[in-house]
């Protein structure tokens, strides 16, 4: 949550920071601000609203000058989104300025101590407390900014990525991280540095980046370069510069109206990238280093426990069906936020699989730490390379979906299912729970999924027409069975988060235990009724809906006739093996929610109250 950007060098900082904030807006977008130092004065400008509102303010009022600056796009935690609570925050003297992503949990007690010493506060934020704490340490201990930050952070409980600037020391910016990501871009010329929550703001300037680890800080100086130190004891850490693989094209809309639409259409490629080098059909093998290297742990496990949040949790539910069906391994799927506080019974014979697109979700990270502390082996399925979860897990497999920027997760979901399916197939083969001929057949079918998604995407115009009919509904019900029950949950989540229409996902057979009471002629019900699996049973559920006048949108297998006669609309997907159907049935549900939200004029990529990576619990 929250995006931070900074620059120190020879160029104008303003355009770099503004453009950088726009790229980080997926992290939070309820207010934005910039501090620029022009050699004489420190100019802070901030506002409630989006980065574009901040930009508009600069067009009329604010000074854009300065070769050093820091900027912030906020997802509010402490204090409502308003101008005053927006970052940057300035210390009482006006000398120090800070941007912060995270939460200072003990800010109340720190605030009381500082208030007792005469400090005053304008905002309701924890961040203003932190900048004044740093100032207080600096004055009391008579130390430089870097040391003051280090001493202050040792008094802080919570999570942070911060950048702090002192106008009396304009040659440097101090940054630090604990639990929230922070990257430093090293400019091609030695005296230029970029700071950001991820590398996207500085991709066009440099491919060299230093990623701070938790509990590290860095003093970034025009003259002395980047010096990384441990927050705990101030010891020096060797600086490791990584070459970025990301390019600008991957983080641009590429002609699509929204990132979400681009990402929906990228799924065939994303899935191919995810199984490339892993699914070797001609040799009939699946190669996944993280699985091979830990095969004993997987095969000897009592059970798998999958922990995740949101869409990643839905991918975990699909995986539960797949692991149990193919590899006959018992699986439990847990919300990371519940698991971490439940005192779960877990030991060294359990394998925990943590799923996360961002790799930064605070609850999932905490669940991993808990599982590790109890001796479990933890395997990560992440999209963001080098993310906290990728680093915290014992082993893992990346989804190669590329950057996902739309807040509503799409290609992350289908690539997570792809990785988990590959794992299930590999383990099933190792355990002998599927025959070698079935294994070959499954590999072939999995390899064909991207082409079948391309075919499913051709229904886009048809789905847009259906979306127009139902866009004004107050409620929607999504029903599915077996492998497609989690897809129903995912479809409902997609609709809720971007169109703000209330939606529920249910196992189709559960409908008669309650939700059926909701059905009348105003209720659209999206029913996943593909040919394989429990088709006849789902058809009976459709009959039950029809007799109560509900509006039925059937997601069916190509050529289906039976549902067509009952449903108000059908959307076809190509035929595939039952356990692979989620990879296809998901596509029309993504498009349906996308079109409804666009027709309702909602902000698809930045839905209200949400942020892409949830780094607070
Ligand atoms: O980055 P993660 O996969 O850990 O994120 C988990 C959820 O926050 C995320 O899936 C969220 O539910 C999405 N907005 C859903 O579209």
For the record, what is the CATH homologous superfamily label of the largest domain? Answer: Aminohydrolase, N-terminal nucleophile (Ntn) domain
Name the CATH class of the largest domain.
Alpha Beta
Which architecture of the largest domain does the CATH hierarchy give at level 2?
4-Layer Sandwich
Helix content: 25-40%
Note the overall shape.
globular
Through-space gap between termini? 11 Å
Give the radius of gyration. Answer: 26 Å
Could you tell me the strand content as a percent range? 15-25%
> What does the largest sheet look like?
8 strands, antiparallel
Arrangement of strands in the largest sheet = 3-2-4-1-10-9-11-15
Low-confidence stretches: none
Small-molecule binders: 5-amino-5-deoxy-1-O-phosphono-D-mannitol
The average pLDDT score comes to 94
**Number of discrete domains:** 3
| CATH topology assignment of the largest domain | Glutamine Phosphoribosylpyrophosphate, subunit 1, domain 1
Q: Helical stretch count?
A: 20
């Amino acid at each position: 949550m929250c995006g931070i950007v900074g620059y120190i060098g020879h160029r104008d900082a303003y355009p770099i920071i503004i453009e950088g904030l726009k790229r980080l807006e997926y992290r939070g977008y309820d207010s934005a601000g910039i501090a620029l130092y022009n050699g004489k004065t420190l100019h802070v400008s901030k506002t409630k609203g989006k980065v574009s509102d901040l930009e508009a303010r600069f067009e009329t009022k604010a000074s854009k000058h300065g070769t050093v600056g820091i900027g912030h796009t906020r997802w509010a935690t402490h204090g409502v989104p308003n101008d005053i609570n927006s970052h940057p925050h300035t210390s009482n003297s006006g000398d120090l300025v800070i941007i912060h992503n995270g939460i200072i949990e003990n800010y109340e007690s720190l605030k009381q101590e500082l208030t007792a010493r005469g400090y005053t506060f304008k905002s309701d934020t924890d961040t203003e407390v932190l900048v004044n704490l740093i100032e207080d340490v600096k004055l009391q201990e008579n130390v430089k900014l870097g040391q003051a930050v280090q001493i202050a952070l040792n008094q802080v409980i919570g999570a942070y990525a911060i950048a702090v600037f002192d106008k009396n020391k304009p040659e440097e910016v101090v940054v630090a991280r604990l639990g929230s990501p922070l990257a430093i871009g090293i400019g091609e010329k030695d005296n230029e540095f970029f700071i950001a929550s991820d590398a996207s703001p500085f991709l066009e300037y440099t491919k060299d980046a230093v990623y701070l680890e938790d509990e590290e800080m860095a003093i970034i100086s025009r003259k002395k370069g980047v010096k990384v130190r441990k927050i705990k004891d101030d010891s020096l850490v060797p600086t490791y510069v990584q070459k970025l693989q990301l390019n600008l094209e991957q983080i641009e809309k590429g002609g699509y109206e929204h990132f979400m639409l681009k990402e929906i259409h990228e799924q065939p490629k994303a899935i191919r990238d995810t199984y490339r080098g892993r699914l070797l059909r001609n040799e009939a093998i699946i190669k996944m280093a993280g699985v091979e290297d830990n095969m004993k742990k997987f095969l000897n496990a009592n059970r798998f426990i999958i922990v995740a949040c949101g869409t990643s949790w839905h991918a975990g539910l699909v995986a539960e069906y797949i692991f149990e069906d193919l590899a006959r391994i018992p699986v439990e799927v847990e919300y990371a936020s519940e698991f971490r506080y439940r005192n779960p019974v877990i030991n060294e014979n359990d394998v925990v699989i943590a799923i996360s697109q961002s790799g930064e979700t605070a609850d999932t990270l905490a669940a991993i730490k808990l599982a590790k502390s109890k001796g479990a082996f933890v395997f990560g399925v992440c999209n963001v390379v080098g993310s906290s979860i990728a680093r915290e897990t014992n082993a893992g497999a990346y989804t190669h979906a590329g950057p996902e920027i739309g807040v509503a997760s799409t290609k992350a979901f289908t690539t997570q299912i792809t990785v988990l399916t590959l794992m299930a197939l590999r383990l099933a083969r190792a355990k002998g729970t599927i025959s070698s001929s079935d294994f070959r057949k499954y590999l072939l079918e999995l390899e064909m999924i991207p082409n079948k998604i391309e075919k499913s995407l051709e229904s886009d115009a048809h789905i847009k027409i259906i979306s127009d009919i139902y866009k004004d509904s107050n409620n929607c019900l999504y029903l599915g069975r077996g492998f497609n029950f989690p897809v129903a949950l995912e479809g409902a989540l997609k609709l809720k988060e971007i169109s703000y229409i209330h939606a529920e996902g249910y196992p189709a057979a559960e409908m008669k235990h309650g939700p059926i009471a909701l059905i009348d002629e105003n209720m659209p019900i999206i029913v996943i009724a593909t040919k394989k699996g429990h088709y006849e049973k789902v058809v009976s559920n459709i009959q039950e809906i029809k007799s109560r006048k509900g509006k039925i949108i059937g997601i069916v297998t190509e050529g289906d006739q039976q549902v067509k006669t009952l449903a108000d609309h059908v959307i076809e997907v190509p035929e595939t093996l039952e356990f692979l159907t989620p990879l296809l049935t998901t596509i029309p549900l993504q498009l349906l929610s996308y079109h409804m939200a666009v027709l309702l004029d909602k902000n698809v990529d930045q839905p209200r109250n949400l942020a892409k990576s949830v780094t607070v619990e």
